[in-house]
Design brief:
Layout lengths: L18 E3 L2 E3 L3 H16 L18 H26 L7 H17 L5 H21 L1
Antiparallel strand pairs: 1-2
Helix pairs in contact: 1-2, 2-3, 3-4
Length: 140
C-alpha cells in the first residue's frame, strides 16, 4: 500500500474491493493483487520497478487474530487468481496501460468462462472482474 508511481501507470493500478465468500470476508488483498497485476503488465511492457523504504510508517499493529480472519480467503484464492492473470496475459500485447488493463480484464472474463475452479472461487473472481471492468471503462 506504500507506493508511488508515474501517472501513466494509474489505469493499470486498481485496488480490488473487499468481497464476501459465503459469509466470510475477502479482505487485505486489494494492494497485493492489484500490485501483482500492475507489475505483470509492467513486465510485459519491459518497464522497470524500483523500491525503497516506506513513505508512511504504521505505528499501530493490527491484532493477529483479526489479520488471520481477514486474510484466510485471500491466501486460499491467491494462487488461482495469479494463475488466471497469467492465462489472461498470454493474450495481452504491450502498449499503453489503459488498453492493456482493459484487454487483461476481457481475457480474465474469458478464462473464468472455461474455468474448472470451485463455484465460490469463480463467483468471487467474477465479482472482482466486474469491478475491474468498471475501472477499465472509467480510465479509458
Amino acid at each position: 500500500m506504500n507506493t508511488a508511481f508515474v501517472r501513466e501507470l494509474t489505469p493499470a493500478y486498481y485496488f480490488l474491493p473487499d468481497v464476501t465468500v459465503g459469509n466470510w470476508p475477502l479482505s487485505r488483498h486489494d494492494d497485493i493483487w492489484g500490485g501483482y497485476v500492475v507489475k505483470r503488465l509492467m513486465d510485459l511492457r519491459g518497464d522497470l520497478l524500483s523500491y525503497g523504504g516506506p513513505v508512511v510508517g504504521h505505528t499501530k499493529q493490527t491484532r493477529l487474530e483479526r489479520v488471520v480472519v481477514l486474510e484466510q480467503w485471500m491466501h486460499l484464492l491467491s494462487v488461482p487468481f495469479y494463475d488466471l492473470v497469467e492465462t489472461a496475459l498470454t493474450e495481452v500485447t504491450p502498449g499503453e496501460y489503459a488498453p492493456m488493463f482493459a484487454h487483461l480484464v476481457e481475457e480474465l472474463h474469458r478464462a473464468l468462462a472455461v474455468s474448472t475452479l470451485p463455484t465460490h472461487y469463480r463467483a468471487v473472481f467474477t465479482e472482482l472482474g466486474s469491478w475491474m471492468s468498471r475501472w477499465a471503462e472509467a480510465v479509458q
